[in-house]
Amino acid sequence: MNTVKDISPIKASERFAILDVLRGFALLGICMANFPEFSLYNFLPQEVRLSMGTVIQDNITRWLLYVFVDGKFYTLFSLLFGIGFSIIIRHAGQRGANGFRIFYRRMALLLFIGFMHLMFIWSGDILMLYALLEMLLPLFRHMSDKRVFQWAAFFLFLPVLVDFICEITCARLALPFVRLQDMYCARYGINAENFAYWLHDAEDYGAVFQFLVQGAFVRMQEFVDGNRYFKVFGLFLIGFCMGRNRIYADLEGNKTLLSKVFCYGLAVGLPCSFLYAWSAMNQHPLSLTVHSMFYLVSVYPLGFAYAAGLGLFYLKTKDGVVWKWFASTGRMALTNYIGQSVIGMFLFYGIGMGLGTTLGLLQTEIIVMAVFLFQMAFSVGWMYGFKFGPLEWGWRMLTYGKWLGIRK
User: Fold this and answer.
1) φ, ψ for residue 222 (rounded to 5)?
2) 28, 197, 264, 386: which has the highest count of C-beta atoms within 10 A?
3) What confidence tens digit (pLDDT) does each residue in 221-247 have?
4) CA–CA separation, 281 vs 268, rounded Å?
């Protein structure tokens, strides 16, 4: 009987470049969405933001982020995780191995990586949630595509219903995490006056860790208040169906489908994203439930349009050098995701260059472009001589339980 050691990771020759390109593209958007927190701009009091000399440019930038970035790139990343599940199971099945044992070991390791990231580097980690939710995907593996899509639609709509119930009952589901955060803030002396400047003023890692502890509970609040687990799991299911039907493997044959997704997604998602941005920037004036509905009809359609549009553009220009740069970045997605956090700490916290709280939002996004270009260049150079990214190498070896040569 075959064991886990009988198989190995997917070879470079077996990879589909479009998936790596999409991962690289998603990493750019994730960096754009995350760095306003690393720069501590999001923590600044409103009066401080308004006093900045870049306030007009920052407000325009914030609006553009709500329209084109917020939620769209984690939508793309979630779809890719669902596709990845189907590939892992197919790859293992083709070799007669226990694909689920490999899958659960892989997710357990990702859960550990996410926990370490959350507690010791950055409170905005998403890997823990991804690992926990992806462990539920095998429950849907025998369902028809129609049934899986029905469940996906249910999970994507569920946040609207939950927000409506919470609004009419004045319930606060995240209250336990709010209390835990308050307890640790009180223990460490973090308060409303120094919250935005704590990481900028941190002179050693001990102070950073204190902020990360309370930040972990803030992250739990965000997951609960934002119903993030329902949203991510619904996207996982859609990605699983996409992977099971191998749409990525025959872009030319699926060109009509991609064109429809792109056109309809853009036609619905873009105008609704303007409504979502207006609601977000004005503190949900039509109620939280309406804001949640705006999210539903804007973020997902536009995120799907991004994926389909990039696939169509790739078909026309697949020999372009830029795709190789994006693909190399995407092949090192875990390394680059964690790397963005490490770079953010170095640039903005007091234990590094201490740029946090001193920059406006537009300046932060300019830095994002520089950071991502650096990561692209590093990824291309690294993948020239190696088979895996550094973190991907360790993750794969622990998953498959054997030594894997990293040099080409």
Assistant:
1) -60, -40
2) 28
3) 999 999 999 999 999 999 999 999 999
4) 20
